[in-house]
Amino acid sequence: MRFSLNFSASAALFLVAAAATTGAFAPSAALLTRRQTTSCAMSTEAAPMADSGVPPASSQASDVAEEEIPTNLPSDVGMDYVPLATMLATGQLAEADQFTRDALIVIAGSKEKGRDFVYFTEVKNMPATDLATMERLWNKFSKGKFGYSVQKKKWKQSKGDFEAFCSKIGWTTKDGDVERKKRWFGASEFIYDVKKAPEGHLPLTSALRGTSLLKQMLNHPVWDNDDWKKEP
């Protein structure tokens, strides 16, 4: 199946929310959620995103090329990743990011437990097969600029310094002489353009209540070598 690849600046977000302060959840636990979401750059005063948080798929075309949509996309839990491949190939970055967020909820086993979020402690439950499948797609259709494996390299280059990491992958901006985290709410300050975005810019991960989720995602064993690159 072939599509005209139209990379866009559609606002996309991979983000997490802080856990509710209840007996069931640790007050500081980082959560992956579909509806009440905050970005890495979001201030604590920002309101949660409505519905899925994905804006309309209107786009600013930045690149056009022909790409073939892969259909052999393995999953250990029965996920169908053809929709993700199609979204990324056609430049629907917002929809692709929402799909990725939903997929993580499934592959971590959270959805099966009746939850629509993932604790950072559950990242270890995510099958390497599924993470590798999604990573290959993000990597392929961003020409190697997006994905967790790219972010892990940037994390290492930053020597585990979160502030340096955010600056390196373009999650910060300057107000005069003051450098601050970018905001996604209102008019998003993130760059949803494959050609213009820095390496590792997407997907976005919240660190509003700490960097545990981000660290767990980047430290998953699947990124320990390049086996994830092997096509099935």
From TrEMBL:
Pfam families: GUN4. It comes from the Eukaryota. The keyword Amino-acid biosynthesis does not apply. InterPro entries: GUN4-like, GUN4-like_sf. The keyword Signal applies. Keywords: Signal. CDD domains: GUN4 (cd16383). Residues 75-221 form the GUN4-like domain. GO terms for molecular function: tetrapyrrole binding. Residues 1-19 form the signal peptide. This is GUN4-like domain-containing protein. It comes from Attheya septentrionalis.
